[in-house]
Specification:
The protein is mostly helical and 125 residues long. It has a single domain, classed as Multidrug-efflux Transporter Regulator, Chain: A, Domain 2, CATH 1.10.1660. The chain contains five helices and three strands. Strands 1-3-2 form a three-stranded antiparallel sheet. The protein is elongated, with a radius of gyration of 21 Å.
Length: 125
C-alpha cells in the first residue's frame, strides 16, 4: 500500500513557536535551571506545558521564552503572585497593541477611501 504524499504544513512563526518539542531535561539545560524549579513554576500556575500522553512535559519555544522571563523576575525577588500579574499584564499589553494597530489600519483605509485626513496625537512616553 502506497502512502499518501504529505503536503508541507503552512506554519507561521507564531504557530511554530507554540509547538511543544522540548522535554523538561532539555529545557533545564537550556536555561540552567534544575527540573524541580520548572515543576515549581508549573505548580504555582505560572506556566502550563503540554503533556506527552498525559505524562511527560513538553515545552515550546514560547514556553521557554516565558520561563526565561519568570526566572529573571524570580531572581529580582518577585514572588509567584507578582510574576503571574506581570505576565498577565504583558499579555494584555500585546493584545491592546494589536487592537490599536487594527484600528489604525481601518482608519487609514477610510482615509484613503473617502479622501479625508485625521491627525492622531501620540502621547509622549
Amino acid at each position: 500500500m502506497k502512502r499518501k504524499a504529505r503536503t508541507p504544513a503552512q506554519n507561521t512563526g507564531e504557530n511554530n513557536a507554540s509547538l511543544p518539542k522540548y522535554t523538561i531535561g532539555v529545557v533545564s539545560q537550556m536555561l540552567g535551571l534544575p527540573p524541580q524549579m520548572l515543576r515549581r513554576y508549573e505548580e504555582a500556575g505560572l506556566l502550563e506545558p503540554a503533556r506527552q500522553s498525559g505524562k511527560n512535559r513538553l515545552y515550546s519555544d514560547a514556553d521557554v521564552a516565558i520561563l526565561e522571563e519568570i526566572a529573571a523576575l524570580y531572581e529580582q525577588g518577585v514572588n509567584a503572585v507578582g510574576i503571574r500579574h506581570i505576565i498577565q499584564m504583558r499579555k494584555q499589553v500585546v493584545v491592546l497593541q494589536q487592537e490599536v494597530n487594527e484600528v489604525r489600519q481601518t482608519l487609514y483605509r477610510y482615509q484613503e477611501e473617502y479622501h479625508f485626513e485625521v491627525t492622531l496625537q501620540k502621547k509622549d512616553t
